[in-house]
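Sequence and structure are kept together here, with a separate record for every protein. A complete record is shown below as an example:
=====
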Amino acid sequence: MMSRDSRIAFAPNWPTRIGWLALAVYVVYAGSQLGFSADRFSTGLEHGHRFLARMFPPNFSRWELIASGIAESIQIAIIATFFGILLSLPVGLLAARNLMPAWVSWPTRAFIALCRSFHPIIVAILFVKAIGFGALAGVMALIVASIGFISKLFAEAIEEISLKQVEAVRATGAGFLSTLIMGVQPQVLPRFIGFATYQLDSNLRNSTMVGIVGGGGIGASLFTAYQRFDFDVVLAILIIIVSLIMIAEIVSGWARRVFQ
C-alpha cells in the first residue's frame, strides 16, 4: 500500500510560501507607511481626469518654440552619443579582463560602475551647477551615461569572444593594435553596433528629461509649459516626443539590420 506522501505529485514548498507571504505583508506595511490609501487614490483619479480634460485638444500654435526645442534635443542626443561611443571604446577595452591585467581592468570597472551609479538627471543637475544652464550640461550628463552603459556591455562582449582567433593573429607576429583590429574587432562589431544604436535611442529619451533640470532641449519647453498651466501645449510636446522616439526606434532597427 502506497504511503500518503508518495501520492503527492507536488509537495508544498513551505519556505517559498512563507517567503511570499512575508513579502506580501511587507508590501502592505510599506504602503501604509508611505501614505497610500483608497481615498487618496480616488482623489487622484479625479484630479487626473480634470488634468487630462485640460490637455485636449493639443495646441500646436507654438510650433516654432517646439521645433527649436526638438532640434536641440536631437543635437544633444547625437553629440552625446558620438563622444560617448568614442570614449567608451578605450574604456571598455581596458575593462576587459581577458585582454588586460587585473591592475588595469578592475580600476576601469570601478570607473564604469561610478558612471552607472547615478541617473542622468542627477548628473545633469551636477553639471548645471558646475557649468550653468544650457545644452552643454545636458550633453555632458548624457556622455557620462553613455560611457557607463556602452563601456560595460562592450567589455562583456570582449570577454565573451573566442581567444583562438586572437591567438592565431598573435602567432603571425602581429602587434597589439593589429590583434585588436583583426582578432577582436570582427567578433564584437555586430554587437557594438547594436549597443550604439540603442544608446542613441536612449539618449533621445533622456535628452527630454535632462532639459527639465536645465540641460537644454525640449524638456525645458515642456517644464515651462507645465509651470504656465498650458496643458494643451504640454500634450502637443508629448505627442511630438513620442513620435520622435518611434521614428528613432524604426531608424535604429533599420541600422541594426543593415550593419550587422
Observations:
- The chain has ten helices and no strands.
- The CA atoms of residues 205 and 219 lie 10 Å apart.
